[in-house]
Amino acid sequence: MRIAILSRNPKLYSTRRLQEAGIALGHEVDIVDTMHCYMDITSNRPSVRYKGKPLPKYDAVIPRIGASVTFYGTSVVRQFEMMGTYSVNESVAISRSRDKLRSLQLLSRKGIGMPRTGFANHPDKIDDLIKNVGGAPVVIKLLEGTQGIGVVLAETSKTAEAIIEAFMGLNANILVQEYIKEAGGADIRCLVVGGKVIAAMKRQAAPGEFRSNLHRGGSASIVRLSPEERKTAVDAAKTMGLGMAGVDILRSNHGPVVMEVNSSPGLEGIEKATGKDVATMVIEHIVKNAKPNKTKTQGKG
Questions:
Q1: Tell me, what CATH number does 127's domain have?
Q2: What pLDDT digit, counting tens, does each position of 205-232 carry?
Q3: What is the DSSP string of 96-137?
Q4: Is residue 81 part of a domain?
């Protein structure tokens, strides 16, 4: 099988591990810089060109699309879909998961547990927005933020109002969410592949920090999931339409709540925390499911 990993950096741990795993299983695996792809959008003969030549016919692609290049990256994935190439995550699903507001609305419609969340452009009463998610402390998030950037914990209503007003003064789109205090600065990253949780780790925030991102000093350890947590992760990935997803869950007093669904989850932290060969499991899933024209969207949407 011939597989392309769409990634801007071949040295990244996740990109490198996926290539190594694919080669070890006897497949031909190329790393293709998404931003250097360009598309020939010709009627009935769509193609992707790279470095002056048409790319070879791939059986499958693994999109590793960074948040900053979502628009162009999903366009490239969509072009592969139009050519009948299997993608572990389709373009529409990636776009859906990257839009935080849209993804939360979809999760809400499916009845999946999530923190109480408010969204507004210029509310007449900021205090009512805060009150509606349970009051201070609240978490305020930039809609376009990634990896914990643009996420602020406001301990009091006055602080929350000041932060919201400041963000609105910059015309920034924000979400206001209830603070799950009982989580104790920890969340659970579930890696869902093909409708199953194949690995999970608990991430604990560093002292004095409420964000549990590993690159912010958080620590990772293996964790045992409850059946409800496992189902929540699987349902969240399914709702987004993702074949591979990192689902971040908090343990709240009213059950597991989903914080985010990531379409390009990193493999380093979870492989090291669990000791599992996640990359090989991803390749095995692709080999089992990749068939010509097996794509739900066929370039739609």
A1: 3.30.1490.20
A2: 776 665 656 555 567 889 999 999 999 9
A3: HHH-HHHHHHHHHHTT-----EEEESS-S-HHHHHHHTTSSS
A4: yes
